[in-house]
Design goal:
Elements (H helix, E strand, L loop, with lengths): L1 E8 L5 E6 L8 H6 L3 H12 L6 E10 L4 E10 L5 E3 L19 H7 L10 E9 L1
Amino acid sequence: MGEVINVRCKACKKEWQCFTGNGLLHGRKETVLAAFSEKDRQQAQRLMEESKIPAYDFQYRLAVCGQCHNVVAVPVLRSADSEETVTGGCPLCGENIKDLCEEEQSVEDWSEKTACPVCKCMRMEAEESGQWD
């Protein structure tokens, strides 16, 4: 089950709502591949087909887009065999992202260490407001 995360900058008051994690439909390869843009889809498909047993982890993670200056949830696919990762682009503008919330990092830690993409202040906060599937 995925989480709905509300991110807010305490300085400029900009807010974002992001759907992180994954849902039941992401147990299907087709749904996982559909989360990626055309340019990333081939790499994701190759990664999924590398092992005899589909051994991968898929989830949406929080990230900052340096192009459109938004906090977004981007698709991330990681192979369990090789530790190779495919990270999708910004769902709003398609550009590569930066400041990705790492798998072992809590959303709260990420928000405290991430600058607001709008005003560049280090006063971001994030909290879970619900779940999605």
